[in-house]
Amino acid sequence: MTKTSTNHAALPSAEVVAAARELARAGRWQRALRLLDSTVTTERHDRAALAVAGAEIALEHDWFGGTDTVGARIAVADVALAGLTEPAGRWDLDFVRLRHAYFRLLMRDGRFRFGPAGKDPAETAGLRRRSRELCDTAPDEVRRGWARMYLGLIVDNVFAERETARSHYELALRAGESADDLLAREALRHLGDHDHDNLDHARALERWSRATALGARAGNVPGTLSQQLLLAVLARDDGDEPAATALATEVARWAEAMGATRLATQATAFLTGTDPTRGSTKGPATEPATGPATGPKNNDS
What is the pLDDT of residues 239-270, one digit of tens each? Predict the structure, then answer.
């Protein structure tokens, strides 16, 4: 059990973590982190759960808000997990590390840089190896699906191996459809990106529309906005510029208001004619998914 530092109300740690994740999905990253930081517990497994959740949420905030805080959160989580035999918690933190390394490789000088050019081959090979290890060591099918999803992203966006990536996305979709809307959404998002690149706009619209609905059902506000921007891309491709402009204008307005500065920049650039799904600036199909909605359990394992 945990206690908040202000009123000492006892709550299960899992409920605090779940509430923080809900706030983060709504784009309330700072509020989510304050909730975690204000929670006091004497249980080591609870402290680990809170710390790992803090690292996950900080990563999402850094991506959408352009901050740089996850490194410190990872260090805190490392200390909290030290000495515990909690395989799920360690796996979750290793997954945060993988995602952080992947995002850092994609961003250079404030811009998205796709493909292997300009990247250290040893670093990219290490990232691929670590993603495979997470697939092999995942403690459940949902986590394995998320690891598979990021293996696909790494193969796709770091190595530019498009056809290989697609098979990983399809496996992730299978895992997500049975148990995790956000995982299914992420897989559909990237499969739709492949459809769009292959000029199959009808299939892209089907996948991206479904991904938008799944994200909304999960309360993923920034993710739903980024999906709307992809639908604006399709509207422009189909010659409906008024619809594309209306969608992107609202995405930019909402993203700016909630502090999702990278998404706001993408939407604003789209309004000036930039296609965010093309070339080295490709962005909206590559965002940090929330990740498995699980964490270290309050037990003695």
Answer: 999 999 999 999 999 999 999 998 999 999 99
Q: In the structure encoding, which two tokens stand for residue 46, read together? A: 């609870």
Asked whether the beta carbons of 189 and 210 are under 8 A apart, the reply is: no
- pLDDT band for 30, please (50, 70, 90 cuts): very high
3-class secondary structure per residue, 165-182: HHHHHHHHHHHHHHHCHH
Helix (H, G, I), strand (E, B) or coil at 4: strand
Assigned token pair, 62: 């850094």
Phi, psi angles (nearest 5°) of residue 296 = -55, 135
Residue 30, CA distances (Å) to 57, 118, 233, 290 in order: 9, 34, 30, 15
- Two structure tokens written together for 86: 């909690």
Count of beta carbons in the 10 Å neighbourhood of residue 276: 24
> Cα separation of 204 and 197, whole Å?
9
Cα 96–chain centre separation: 10
Res 109: pLDDT = 73
CA 253 to chain centre: 21
Question: What SS3 state is found at 111?
Answer: strand
Task: Report the amino acid identity of residue 65.
Answer: G
pTM: 0.89
Of 171, 151, 149, 168, nearest to 159 by C-alpha is: 151
Query: What average pLDDT does the structure give for the chain?
Result: 89
Q: How does pLDDT run across 144-178, given as a tens digit for each residue?
A: 999 999 999 999 999 999 999 999 999 999 999 98
Determine the distance from the C-alpha atom of residue 251 to the mean position of all C-alpha atoms in its chain, rounded to a whole number: 18
Give me 146's structure tokens.
Answer: 């998320």
